[in-house]
């Protein structure tokens, strides 16, 4: 069985400054099945992470996710392949 990941969970998981980061990390340690997320959830997550300064554009160096292609690779960890 697969779980479903929503924006709030993904943002908290990726952003160590998020108030729910600890909760998201604990949940991710307990989940054994792939988590699914639809493309709108992933797009919204990227939007929120960019606003938090975690996703940078134009190839500038950054702390976390640098491009949509890297985001897609990260999303595959949750069982969602955007290139299928």
Number of domains: 1
> How are the strands of the biggest sheet laid out side by side?
1-2
Tally of strands: 2
Q: Per DSSP, what share of the residues sits in E-state strands of 2 or more residues?
A: under 5%
Sheet bearing the most strands, described?
A: 2 strands, parallel
Q: Topology, pairings included?
A:
Layout: E1 3-4, H1 7-14, H2 21-30, E2 35-36, H3 39-51, H4 68-76
Parallel strand pairs: 1-2
Helix pairs in contact: 1-2, 1-3
Descriptive notes:
With 84 residues, the protein is mainly alpha-helical. The protein has one domain (3-76). Helix content is 48%, strand content 5%. It is built from 4 helices and 2 strands. The protein has a two-stranded parallel ribbon with strand order 1-2. α1 (7-14) packs across α3. It starts with a strand and ends in an 8-residue tail after the last helix. 25% of the residues are buried. Residues 56-66 have low confidence and may be disordered.
